[in-house]
Specification:
- The protein is α+β, with helices and mostly antiparallel strands and 84 residues long.
- It has a domain of 38 residues: YefM-like domain (YefM-like fold, 3-Layer(aba) Sandwich).
- It contains three helices and three strands.
- A three-stranded mixed sheet has the order 1-2-3.
Length: 84
């Protein structure tokens, strides 16, 4: 069940609303009748499985080599800065 409360009520009953959300219920906090926040229970995070992608991803031997040489970069910079 979803419960809607105004900001004043949420401030004065925050502990109760958190307990309500912790029990699996959902709470909408509204301002002037318009929803502005949503309290809901936090889902348990699944633990990561180490090595899940093992053997499925590969890198080239030169993966960390620069794509361009310093002279290539200098030439590109000159071409960009020249008026056309």
């Amino acid at each position: 069940m979803v419960m809607t409360v105004n900001i004043y009520e949420a401030k004065s009953k925050l502990s109760q609303l958190l307990a309500y959300a912790q029990s699996g219920e959902e709470v909408i906090i509204a301002k002037a009748g318009k929803p502005i926040a949503y309290l809901k229970p936090v889902e348990e995070m699944k633990r990561r499985e180490p090595g899940r992608w093992s053997g499925q991803i590969s890198f080239e031997n030169d993966w960390d080599e620069p794509v361009f040489s310093a002279s290539d970069l200098d030439e590109m910079e000159q071409n960009l800065c020249e008026p056309q």
